[in-house]
Structures are given as C-alpha cells and as structure tokens.
Amino acid sequence: MKFVNPRFLFFAIFIGMFLLLAACSNSTDGKASENGSDDYPEKSITVVVPAGAGGDTDRNTRTLAKNLEDELGVSLVVQNVNGAGGSTGTRQVLDADPDGYTVLAFHDAALINNVLDLTDYSIADDFEVAGIGILDKANTFMVSGDSKFDNLQDMVAYAKDHPGEVKVATETGAFTHLQLLKLQEEADVEFNIVDAGGAADKIKALLGGQVDVVPTSLGLVQEYVDSGKMKSLGVMSDERLELFPDVPTFKEQGYDVVFDKIFFWAFPPETPDDVVNKFSDAMEKVVKENGEFADKLKGYGVNPEYVGPGEAEKLIKETQNNYKEIYDSSK
C-alpha cells in the first residue's frame, strides 16, 4: 500500500483551493462587469415625466435628455405619465426594474405629495438620486393682460375685501399648491383654489378666463407677456432676476414667500451605484460644459445647476422638511 507524503497532500489541497477561489473571483468579476457601468448603457433609457406635455417639467426634461443622449450614446425616450399630482408616474419608476433603463425626471411636487400624505414613499429615502440639473427661480403668479391686478399687493388687497372670490389655478399636491398655502398664511387671505391640472392646463384656464390667477414659471409664459396677454404679479425669489429685472419679488412687496423649483433625476431603489454615478457624470458634463444647453435654458428663464447624488439627496431632504413646516403651519 502506497502512502502519500503529507507535505505533498497539503500542497495539492492548497493549490486546489487557490484555483477554486480564483475561479469564483473571475466569475464574480464577470458578473459585476455585466451588471455594472462598464457597458452601461447598451440600449435606450425610458425617462418618466410625471406631468403632461407642454409644461415646464416636460420642456426642461426633454432639453436635458436630448443633450444627455450625446454623452451616453443612446436614446432617451421621454414618457409623459400624468395624474395624481405626479404620483402616478413617480410610482411607476419606484416599481420599475433597477437596471438603469428607467429614470424619473421630476421636481418639488414629488416632495409635496409626501408632505400631504398622498404617497407612502419619499424621493430621498426610497429612490437612488442621480442629481439635480436645473433650478427655476422665476416662479410667479400670472394674470391676464387686462386684469385689475397690476402687482401682488393689488391682488392681496382685493382678496382681503372679497374672501374666497379670487380664483387661483393649481394642481392638488403640486408645487403651486404649496405656494398658495404659503401666501394665504403670509397675507392672511383666502383664495378660491381651483384644481385646473398641470402647467399647460393652468395656462389654458387663465387664457380662457376660467381663473383669475395662475402660479407658474415666468419663462414658460414669456411669449404671452411679450404679446400683452399676460402680466406677472411678482416672482418668488430672494432678489430680482437678471432675466426679468423689471419684475418685483414677493418679498419686496411685503410677503416672505420664496420658492426655488429643483428639477432632479432619480432611479428605482437598488439601482447599482456605478450605474447611477455614470448617468450623473453625464448630467454634470452637460450642465457645466454645454454652452448650447445653457443658452437654451436661459431662453426658458431657468438656470443650469448641477448638484451630485449625495448633495442632491441632502438638499431634497432639507427642502421636504421645509415644505412640511409650511404645510403644518397652514392647517
């Protein structure tokens, strides 16, 4: 009977274990490469916009998406999923596969939906935030060109004398809804708040005479201002805007109402970090380096501003907490 040298046996076992571990490592590396960012993206990406076509959310998203295509090398297909103040489209992304091929492009309305208990999830806690690409400081209250109101003070004075008479368009649970709640509290007035739908629908309601006032983005309605069909009562920014120097702020008219609209992009939960980061890097390059993109946004009256994943998530949390304070104090 032959006996195997113990040292030889130990050496053979050691070599076998080494080869086995190497094989496992190669297998794992291959999987990481397959599911990671090395080959991402390999096909078109669906961009879910929880708002109707024709509004500022749709317009801003399509503008950034078009430029992202050049950086990512694939098509970005914008899908408008309107309804329930944006929560329908947001939920669709939350439930999507976390493979990097479905992304949400939205704004503060998603935060407000959570504050109003219209959703059981939050952007910062339940999504993988890719970043912020656009900031809109030109949030305004618009009236028709022949309105009896020439500024915010005129409207507030009339509303004080005629409680519940001034019809103001909004979309329940949306960004403009919170603006109205804040102004009502700040000015101690009561408006007749009309749920008119998304941005494009609200503008139609004002042009058609169904409402007296529309909160919207000034850049979105600039053509109506130029034609005399609309006029602005003021902007909700800290100071007058370079693009609209003749439009006073709400603050200088005596009402501390300031709202900046942040347009963010976010992936479903558990989307790999390297995929999110690669998409975010493309956003950063477009926002910081693409002059054509910046000029386009300037024409819209909004600002290109990149905030990366970590800081964007922090800002979103802080903003949502601020909105909650506003809502709670308005009850």
Automatic annotation (TrEMBL):
Pfam families the record matches: TctC
Alphabetic keyword roster: Signal
Gene3D superfamilies: Bordetella uptake gene, domain 1 (3.40.190.150), Periplasmic binding protein-like II (3.40.190.10)
InterPro entries in the record: BUG (IPR005064), Bug_dom1 (IPR042100)
The UniProt record lists the keyword Signal: yes
Domain of life assignment: Bacteria
Xref: CDD domains: PBP2_Bug_TTT (cd07012)
UniProt signal peptide: 1-22
Keyword Secreted: no
Family, per entry: Belongs to the UPF0065 (bug) family.
PANTHER family cross-referenced by the UniProt entry: BLR1237 PROTEIN, TRICARBOXYLATE-BINDING PROTEIN
Name this polypeptide is given: Tripartite tricarboxylate transporter substrate binding protein
